[in-house]
């Protein structure tokens, strides 16, 4: 049995640890956000689980390796398990299968997380002990190296039927390169260059998850900060400036409030208010409204109620711009509500509305609507993001109320 290790000798950093038997064979590999805290549990009086006790009875040596982040620990653990196949990494699973990242073999490879890689032509990276952490890593990588997630089916024939006539919302939000899910590829300028960039993104993700780019990974926190944060800040500022110029707004819209209504024939009607500050969602400022008026499929009336209740909260910050889900009717309804308030500052708030089908934008500052397709991409992305957030927040609240009624 292995001797006791003093906790002070173990670093309080992310890393990977390995147990060896008396023959110096690696018998277990684990990862930890805090090595000292995690390894302390193995040497305490209460060791959880009979299999862990069996491991500690057989273990003769312990080593650890610090990593720069939790993500690096996850990837290093995967490499070591794949290379050494430690005995207790199998027996300690409690019949749970490891997760793998699958890269499909096709013109525009897709990325899936699965517990059962089956297709011989696909390339897999793994195993990973935590599918939850793995999905979080892929979500973060996607911000740096966009790849398509629209066509979720593993069946290529089904994916062909799921293709779009226009760019998807994720492409508008710079989360997808918008190249693989379009029926008509001629819509895409610089098709060959974008195709090459897409394949390079896939290869980079594959290499990083496989641990082949150690230099890149050691620099990853700085790269992530420099590219993601600086690019997003510059993009947000440009979008807000262009939005002000196109719609003749009196000020740069540093606080934008988006509104939407969710209901089925007026029942369980809910409303949502989302807030974007400096071009970014501020979820602490989100508000939801349960519509109090009698059930009726009248979205305009519900919008009136929600806006009236919102602007009765004079203690809430005043927005620089309102974005309403709906057409000209919703725009006029919003303007009517605001005009009833005595505060002149409310009456000066410009209003935009996204018409049905998201084809054009109406505005209180312009005489004619502007087709969404005519707006610069940064402005399109921002408005669609706000509208999508308002819809998501409203429908989530509606579903919560609906489920509550079904349980009664």
Which helices and strands appear, and what pairs or packs with what?
Blueprint: E1 15-20, E2 26-32, H1 35-40, H2 50-58, E3 61-66, H3 70-84, H4 87-91, E4 99-103, E5 111-114, E6 123-128, H5 131-144, H6 156-161, H7 169-172, H8 191-209, H9 214-218, H10 220-246, E7 255-264, E8 267-277, E9 280-281, E10 287-290, H11 299-311, E11 321-325, H12 328-339, H13 344-347, E12 351-354, E13 360-363, E14 370-371, H14 377-407
Parallel strand pairs: 7-11, 11-12
Antiparallel strand pairs: 1-2, 1-3, 4-5, 4-6, 7-8, 8-9, 8-10, 12-13, 13-14
Helix pairs in contact: 10-14, 11-12
CATH fold-level label of the largest domain? Nucleotidyltransferase, domain 5
The level 1 CATH classification of the largest domain is Alpha Beta
Q: Give the fraction of residues assigned to helices.
A: 40-55%
Beta content comes to 15-25%
Shape: elongated
Radius of gyration: 27 Å
Structurally, the number of domains stands at 3
CATH architecture of the largest domain: 2-Layer Sandwich
**What's the main sheet like?**
8 strands, mixed
**Low-confidence residue ranges:** 222-230
What is the string of SSEs from the N terminus onward? EEHHEHHEEEHHHHHHEEEEHEHHEEEH
Q: What is the count of helical runs?
A: 14
Name the CATH superfamily classification of the largest domain.
Answer: UvrC, RNAse H endonuclease domain
What's the average pLDDT?
77
Distance between the termini: 58 Å
Compute the number of strand runs: 14
